[in-house]
Amino acid sequence: MSFLDTVRIALRALLKNKMRAVLTIIGVVIGIAAVTTIVSIGQGAGQLVSGEFEALGTNVVLVLPGQTRRGGVRQSGAPTLTAADADAIRVECPAVLAASPIVGTSGQIIYGNENWNPKEMQGVGADHLTVRNWALDAGGFFSQTDIDSNAQVCVIGQTLIPKLFRTVNPLDETVRVNNVPFRIIGILKKKGANMVGDDQDDVVLMPHSTVRKRLNGSPLDTVHAIMVSARSTDQMSKATKEIRALMYERHEVGPNDEADFSVQDTTEIAATLAIITGTLTLMLSAIAGISLLVGGVGIMNIMLVSVTERTREIGIRMAIGARGKDILRQFLVESVVLSCIGGAIGIALGTAASMAATMLINAYKPGTEWPMVVSIPAALVAMAFAAAVGVFFGYYPARRASMLDPIDALRYE
Amino acid sequence: MALIELKDVRRVYDLGEVQVHALRSVTRNVELGEYIALIGASGSGKSTLMNTLGCLDRPTHGSYLLGGEEVVTMNRDQRAKIRNRQLGFVFQSYNLLNRTSALENVELPLMYGKKIPPRERRDRAMEMLGKVGLADRYHHHPSQLSGGQQQRVAIARALVNRPSILMGDEPTGNLDSKTSREVIELFRELNEEQKITVILVTHDQNVARNAKRVIVLRDGEVVEDTQEFSLAKAALEYDPTVS
């Protein structure tokens, strides 16, 4: 019997009992829809996370001050890093592309009669844009000379423009930060929100020396952190090792001493986050898979009933020349058709559900661009899985039908 | 070479503690173009013999050559192929597929045989329906047809693959006398005009009288094989326990 005839017969057999077919399909629909939704949302989360890290610069290493011990009391965030450390890292570590010391501050920025409290106000090094893989929209960035001379210049993010300047071009305008005048020499390109929904464009960057001396009034030559970028993502671990070795040497940390700094590799965080989201997706998929299993058992149940009900039909088919494998194929195709229809509806429903979920997330968390992922391979895998469920759970009933004795089957009432 | 050669065919049902000898020993030949009625009381083994001849059942002993081929040693698929190509079945209860049109019922054996284009399949089924006088009822479902019409659809289905043997298991058992006569007439025509070998199991004396050869079975053995219906009738009515 040709495959087309087999499918036709299967469809007709299913149509004879529409209600039953629909109820059987629902089990598979729910299973496949759940799997599709969860995989799709999980992949969206994964993309969001990895997107964030790419924006941050996947090759970024953070050097943070460690804990110092003073008379047995541990103190974190102690000022142990200096701008000189940053210079040394850049010069002496071959795997390092650039390094930027970071000095945090906060305050109000005033222009004319407008004022604004930027989320981020940082003193940074001249290579900061290279490290962060950020670009300028207009103007320029401060140089090492500006840093050495504690120049009162700054570069602002896009968010500040509408807050402070209505029609004026901000370039070359002077703003006041905590009553210290700064000339705007550059405007950053838009970067958007980060993964926690923080606006990354609400930022003011200034020379770290100026911030330290003019704004923070600190007499020490210390910085809060050093942001380092490796030459490539592949060289991350090499750069991390080099930085660690260099810092041990510069800070004279002995083999038995506790380091007064720590080196954080963002790919590790990214990888960890990816593992967490991956594991979560897998776990939820497994739970969704259970409903698919239940759907499969439903198919098997119905197929067994169907085989018993149609024993006589099987006998008739055998008497006129159907071989065991013809009967096997007929019932197998029937259950695969059932599961595939369920799979197709499930994929459509699951896609719709994940779209709705994405829209909800984006609506409730403004600024977040949770990506909508409709993965064709995932849909194909789901479809193949549905078909596999049909084959797996349909095989036993079909096999049972094909093994019937034609005489017994014909006599069956 | 005869069309059918049965040599010491026995069929024993093993029911655990007891063994039932449905066929004790049957040795018989059937030639191409014969018209045979198998008669006998219930339990005489005529249905078992029929199932054996129809390749639905396999004897436990002996040899069955169909067209020179040994059937006894064949596997399930090979026997299914024989049923499809060389045999046509007609049953007492018609055994048509419900909710399936007459045409599709007749097409069915063609689907399980050699690959035939759907168009040709349909044409052949239509032609067969025409021969049994139901061309205008091709789209009717079995439930929309009378018993006689259903049996004629079943005959069309049995013949559509041009088998050499047509087998009937009480083909008139569910029919009234008028339609019964029509069906008997159809069997006779098929045998005489198309030289189809017909083997029927029957209780109906009218059917048996129409046959050219009557085989009488009792307790799993052939007790009479004759072309004279009166001899067969006598053998059938003979009661060994009375004398």
Radius of gyration of chain B: 18 Å
Into how many domains do the coordinates of chain A divide? 2
Largest sheet of chain A: 12 strands, mixed
β-strand percent of chain B reads 25-35%
Class inferred from helices and paired strands of chain A: alpha+beta
Shape of chain A: elongated
Please bin the fraction of helical residues of chain A: 40-55%
Of all protein chain pairs, which has the greatest interface, and how many residues does each chain bring to it?
A-B, 22 and 27 residues
Instruction: Classify the beta-strand content of chain A into a percent band.
Output: 15-25%
Tally of individual helices of chain A: 13
How would you sum up this structure, described in words?
The complex is a heterodimer of chains A (413) and B (243). By secondary structure, chain A is of the alpha+beta class. In chain A, the strands form three sheets. In chain A, strands 1, 5, 6, 7, 8, 9, 10, 11, 12, 13, 15 and 16 form a twelve-stranded mixed β-sheet that branches. Chain A has a two-stranded antiparallel sheet with strand order 2-3. In chain A, α1 packs across α11, α9 (266-309) crosses α11 (324-364) and α9 packs parallel to α12. Chain A folds into two domains: 3-54 and 271-411, no CATH class; 79-259, no CATH class. The longest helix of chain A is centred in the C-terminal third of the chain and has 44 residues, at 266-309. Chain A has 13 helices and 16 strands. Chain B is an alpha/beta fold and 243 residues long. Chain B has helices at residues 46-53, 76-85, 102-112, 118-131, 147-159, 177-194, 205-210, 229-237; strands spanning 4-15, 18-30, 35-40, 61-66, 69-70, 87-91, 165-169, 197-201, 213-218, 221-226. In chain B, β1 (4-15) and β2 (18-30) form a beta hairpin. In chain B, 45% of the residues are buried. The A-B interface holds A 1-2, 5, 12, 16, 312-313, 315-326, 406-407, 410 and B 51, 54, 56-57, 76-77, 80-81, 83-85, 89, 91, 95-97, 99-100, 108-109, 111-113, 115, 157-158, 161.
